């Protein structure tokens, strides 16, 4: 009995193989038919494919051009309007100065206090926009942030230190806007 069941299963698997083989043959025949296109059909497929690729290329090139134009516009607008907030704040200073000029009061004390208030307003705006003052009176000379206008002998200040500040310097975000213009102390020459 064991021999018969084994033979039956062998026959069954052989039949399955026979059945499977024709299906494989049909698939390979279809592949061969696809491969065996005429030259005209192959040319037509190639032309369609090249047209699709050309269309993709044109779309990508147009998109790249649009991105470039948009970036250029954004950079130009950034240049034009970079100082917009700062300028808006400066208008407060202008308004204050105009009110002082239009004022009927000619009191010197009122004028002086108005100027001090305006200066304080301006300093607050500068601080808001990270503009800091370089006022190096008495500090050692630093060519990176100071511009020496002259040298003067002094016994009050150490040689190489700043005696007088003609014009304060300024930094914008820790970058030099204008160096402080100063007089630097030198050694006193002793007659011997």
Question: How would you state the average pLDDT, rounded?
Answer: 82
For the termini, the CA-CA separation is 137 Å
Largest sheet: 3 strands, antiparallel
Low-confidence stretches: 14-22
* Rg from Cα: 44 Å
- Spatial strand order of the main sheet: 1-4-5
What's the helical proportion of residues? 55-70%
By CATH reckoning, the class of one domain would read Mainly Beta
Number of discrete helical segments: 4
CATH third-tier fold name of one domain = Nucleotide Exchange Factor Grpe, Chain A, domain 2
SSE order, as H and E?
Answer: HHHHEEEEEE
Please give the number of β-strands.
6
How much of the polypeptide forms β-strand, as a percent range? 15-25%
Short summary of the structure?
This protein has 192 residues and is of the alpha+beta class. It has helices at residues 2-35, 39-81, 84-102, 108-128; strands at residues 131-134, 146-153, 162-167, 169-172, 175-178, 180-186. It is built from four helices and six strands, in the order ααααββββββ.
Task: Explain the overall architecture.
61% of the residues lie in helices and 17% in strands. It is of the alpha+beta class. Among the domains are: 83-129; 130-186, Nucleotide Exchange Factor Grpe, Chain A, domain 2. The termini are far apart.
Write the layout of secondary structure elements.
Elements: H1 2-35, H2 39-81, H3 84-102, H4 108-128, E1 131-134, E2 146-153, E3 162-167, E4 169-172, E5 175-178, E6 180-186
Parallel strand pairs: 2-6
Antiparallel strand pairs: 1-4, 3-6, 4-5
């Amino acid at each position: 009995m064991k021999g018969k069941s084994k033979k039956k299963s062998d026959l069954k698997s052989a039949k399955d193989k026979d059945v499977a083989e024709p299906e494989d043959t049909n698939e390979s025949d279809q592949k061969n038919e696809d491969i065996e296109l005429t030259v005209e059909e192959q040319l037509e497929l190639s032309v369609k494919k090249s047209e699709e690729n050309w269309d993709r290329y044109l779309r990508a090139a147009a998109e790249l051009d649009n991105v470039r134009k948009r970036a250029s516009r954004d950079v130009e607008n950034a240049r034009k309007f970079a100082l917009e907030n700062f300028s808006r704040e400066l208008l407060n200073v202008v308004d204050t100065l105009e009110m002082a000029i239009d004022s009927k009061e000619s009191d010197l004390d009122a004028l002086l206090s108005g100027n001090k208030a305006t200066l304080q307003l301006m300093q607050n705006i500068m601080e808001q926009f990270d503009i800091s003052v370089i006022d190096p009176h008495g500090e050692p000379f630093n060519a990176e942030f100071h511009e020496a206008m002259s040298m003067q002998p002094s016994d009050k200040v150490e040689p190489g230190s700043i005696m007088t500040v003609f014009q304060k310097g300024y930094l914008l975000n820790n970058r030099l806007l204008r160096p402080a213009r100063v007089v630097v102390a030198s050694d006193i020459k002793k007659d011997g």
